[in-house]
Structures are given as C-alpha cells and as structure tokens.
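Hi C.,

You asked whether I'd gotten around to modeling the 642-residue construct. I have! Everything is below, sequence then structure, no commentary in between.
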Amino acid sequence: MNARLTAVREKLDRRLLAKRQQRLEPRNGSVLPEHIPVTLTPGVSGLLALIHKSLQEDRVRLLPPPAPGEETPALPPAPVLPIPPALQELADAFQASVPLLPRADRALVLPPQVHGAVLAFLQDEFTYLSDTTQARPPTPAPLLMKLRQATSAYSEGRVSDSITLLKNALNGDPHNQSILACLSQILYGLANLGNATALPEARDYAQRSMIASEQQRPARLELYQYLALITERAFSEDRTLEWLRTTNLLNPALLQGHGGLMGMQSIPLRAWGLLTTLPVTTWGDHELDHCQNLLHQVVGGGALYLHWLRPLLQQRLSLSKVPEERIMAFEESVTASWRSFEQVQRSLAQFPQVQYAQPWLIKLRYLNTLVQVLPQQSFDMILCHVSLDGQSWHEHAYPQREFQAMLEDYTLSFWRLWGQSLTANKDHLKLSMFPAEDTLQEAELIPDLEAALELLRGLERQAMQSDLWDDIKPWLTRWQTDHLLAVATGSNQPRNRFAPNLSMFKTLYRRWQEPVIHSYLTSDLITETARRGGFASLEEALTALGGALRLLDDRTYGLEAAQRRALMLAQKQNPAKFAGRRFNGERSFAGSGVMRGLLPLGLLGAIFAAFMLSGNVSQAIGISLALVGLAGVLLINLSQRS
C-alpha cells in the first residue's frame, strides 16, 4: 500500500509543478477584446416580450375609437416563447403588476365621445384619494366631492362639465397632482379625437403633474409621470425624450435591490421600454449614463442591455462616422463577461460524465451539485439574476433552495456565485468559485485513492479477530479524521494545514465535517469522509490514508494492540464472559495452574542436578541463575495467558 500511495503522491506533485510553471509563463500584453456576438435565448426574450406587450397596450389606450367599419388597432400577440423555470418567478412577478394603468372595461357601453380608458383612470384616482391610508396628505371632502361629480359627468358624456368641475377644484388646490393628471388625461383624449386646442393645455397640466413633491408617494408620482410620457409619445418624440430626462424614471436605482428587475413596480421597466421606442440617434449623455449604470449596477440590467439596448446602440455605431468610446466600453464589458461565462461553461460541461462511488473532494461534490440543479445555463438568463459589477444578485430565486438543500448549507447564494464569476469588474472577478478544470484533473486520481482505500480495508480485515471483534467493541478506541492527519503530519492542529483559502469552500469544509465522524476502523472513517466529499484536496486525502497505514502497524495504538488492550479491559470488567478468551484465537489450557505448582519443584531439581553434574562451583551457580531467569519468563507468560 505504501508503494501505491507514493505513486499517487508523485502524480499529484507532477500536476502541481505543471500548474506552477503555467502561471510563471510570460503572457502577452493586454489586447482589446473583439466584439463577439452574444447568443440570446428564447426564454429571456419571452420574459421581456411581456413587458413590451404591456407597453404597447399603454400606447394605444387613448387612441380614438374606430370609425364605423374600421377595426381597433391590433396589439402585438402575446409571447409564445417558453419561459424556463429559472425565469418563471420573474415573469409571474411582472404579470402580477400588469396592468398598472387603468384601462377601459370592455363590457362598458359608453357614448362614442367618451374614452373608456380615461374614465377608468378617473374612477381609479377617486378610489385612491378616498383611501386615507394611501393618499398623502388626506384629501379634503369637498375636493373628493368635486372629483366624484367630474367622474359622473364624464361617464355620462358631459366632458366639458367634467373639465369645468376639475378646473374649479384645481383653483382651490393649484398644485394637486391628482387633479392635474386627471385634467391632462381628459384633454389628451380630446386631442386624440381631433381637438387641436386641447393639446397645449393637456401638455401644461401633464408637465405640472410630473413635478417631484415630498407630499406625494413616490409610486403614485411615477404613475403620473409615466401617464404624461406615454400619452405625449403619440404626439411628439422630442418632447417625450425631454420629459423623460426631467423625470427620475430612468434612474437605475429604481431597479436596484435583491429582487432585480421585478423587485420594484413595473413603471421603471416600462419607462426603459418607452426609451427604446425613441430614435437612438437622439439619445444624449444623460441616456448613455443611465445605460452604463443599468448595465453594470442593476440585477438583470445586463439582460435588458442585451435584448433592448445593444441592438439600438450597435445601430447607432453603424451610423456614426467616428466610433463612440462609451458604447465601445459597453461592448468590452459584455465581451469580458461573456468570455468568463464561456470558460466556466466549457469546464462545467464535462461534469455530468464524472461519476464516482464517493465524491471525496469538496469541490467535486460542489460542482456536481451545481450542474445538477441548473444543467442548462444561458448567458442572458444568468444576467437576469445578477449585476455585471458582481456586487448584487437575485436572492431566493430558483434554484436557490434546491442548491442549498443539496449542499446542506443555507448560507450560500447560487446567483452570488454566478455574479462574482461573470462580473466585468476585474477587482471582483472570482473564477475560483468554479474551479472546474483543476477539480477535474484531481478527480482523475480518485480511482487510485479508491484502490488504496480497498487495500487498507483488506489489511484491517487480516488484523481483525472476527470471534472477538463484536464483543470487545465497547473497549476499542474510536478514531477521528483529525487523529489520522495528526499521525501523518505530527501536528496537533492538522486541519489548519488543509483548510481551503476561499471562504465559500472553507464554510463547506466545516459544514461537511458535522457531525464529527467516529469509527473503530480507519477505513470506515475515510470512507464516510469521502462519501460526504469532506476532503479539501487530494493532499489531505493522501495524508489521511498515510496516517491510517502508519496507525495500523503501530505497536502501541495499532489495530492488534488495540484489540489486546480492549480484551484485557473486558476481562477485568466482565471476567465471567471473557474468561479463557485469547487474542489471535489462542485458548488457555487447563494445566496452566498445575504448571505453576510444578515449576518451583522442577527448578530446584534442575539446580541440584547442575551442582551434582558440574565439577566447577562457579559454573554450577551460572547454570542455576539461567534456569531461574527462564522460569521467571515462563511464569509471566502463563500469567498473561490466564
């Protein structure tokens, strides 16, 4: 067995030497990465199509009713692309927030000049203001009464009366954003019906409704801002972009948080969708700044960039005579992240073929678990759950719970691992979280470890006395892995020598040692540790096997010595059960007591014969002393046998 362990250790040393030489090889200077195309997956496209479809519904909500014989403008069909389980939670979260804008009741019969979407908004606004727990500050009763009357007049087709009532209410509270938003929506509806004089007034009220106020709830203010933007979009692209800049809707901070894209209301997402409908050639530094922050800082921002912004920005690059450095920097970030993803994928793709009776190594068990819970990763799907700067990730999203359960550790975050492995920020990049190539190379030596363990198990079976083993177990020594490592290294804290450097693997190293394994046989101890995947490295596994072999042959603590010692203790505590039991199958004989009685007589006779037959007194004394010593040894052996 020593020869086999030496051979495995030599293989490991050659591997480590090759890795060191590879690290020391001179490398070429940094080269600007080529702008490679990134494959987009249907699942992510289906998720983002839900957002675009909702945006299109918002855009047609105030279109004039179709004339007799005309059809209602068609909406884009609902996405039929499959959404994978890893994204279903995000899709459900968005659909739960749709529609945010009130829409006309299809079953409601209204006069032709009344637009159902505006009525729906008026009714929703009255409900909101009536709820004193939502509106801030609480709406006075007279104002609520006027809003009720205006809504009733609008529903009856008396649009002018409704406008008059709302303007009278506004005179008493000129900064009331709710009244301003209601007036702007009614006037925008009239403008859509062909009333040219209503448009300037609608714009004035809409612009005033968007002004930030400490007295207004942020979510409601975002609704008023988005209402103004989506309705103005039908009249002027330039004004829409100008208003979009004055609001805060494109601020990536509204999308930041553990929930990522779906962690907030869907209005900021729709605002980004609205931006993509405006000509990219009109975007300025303000929009590019937000694009940069969205790409790097927002959980899911990378997916939005790939599917929505990247095609437009590449179009802008193709139209520009001089390449824009900022857009090129976006491409470099995506390319760097894509290359890290490809490197990880190439390595992980080999793991489904790695099958062993026991994983042995922490990293091998961890990586095998990783490819089991989410075997088909795609670049843009991962970017839906992480930020490109590696500082944020989507907590608790699928397959987080499955991953933690299989690893028996609920402190690890599945998406954090990906976020810090694909980040474009070199200071935070940690490809060591996916040590696939190194682990696969180490795994090639696992069959040698299995063979060495089987040899150790065979040697232990030879040293065990089967007719005694089960009976003397209570008095046998129970070993731990630390004992084997201490025997091999001579250290009283051997674990410190083998603990992984990366905190994540160090956590698993401690976790998979609990509960502490105790065993009478070192082979069982190593087998259970290997089953848990509890060895930090091949070096630790080899050290444990070497310590077990050294312990097996130890004269004081070895397996044979342990059995003898256990038998002696058993005979002292339970002499009736263990009387006459011998190690190695030897039995005491009934004449041992007689031998003790006859031994002194025989010794005296031998001494007398020595004096009688020897002519030299000194020679006779020497022979007598030798006989006394032999008799003493014989008595000791007889005592041990009994």
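If it helps when you're writing up: Residues 23-34, 585-599, 601-613 have pLDDT under 50 and may be disordered.

Thanks,
B.
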